[in-house]
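The step that takes the researchers longest sounds almost clerical: writing a folded protein down as plain text. The outcome of that step, for a single protein, is printed below.
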Amino acid sequence: MLAAATLAILATIILALVRAILGPTVFDRLQAANTIGTCAMLLLALLGFLVGRPDFLDLALVYGLLNVIGVIAVLKFFHRGDLGAGGEEPR
């Protein structure tokens, strides 16, 4: 069962790589990168379960948080053009 889960996650990564390469817009590529990060997080948690190391789950959670923060930063960059202060423009 764990081998089937691993193969399913790897197939999802391959499909996301195809979307990242062929994506017509930047947002398609960003979504594919987010999907790859999430699948990597799942693989890390699965690997920790297989080898009996529960501390891999902590690493997977940190990786997931970094993935979310990275996606928000890239979206802010494409929306505003910079990563500066988030308040309103001075008048």
Notes: The helical segments are 2-22, 26-51, 55-80. The chain has one domain: 2-80. Residues 2-80 form one domain.
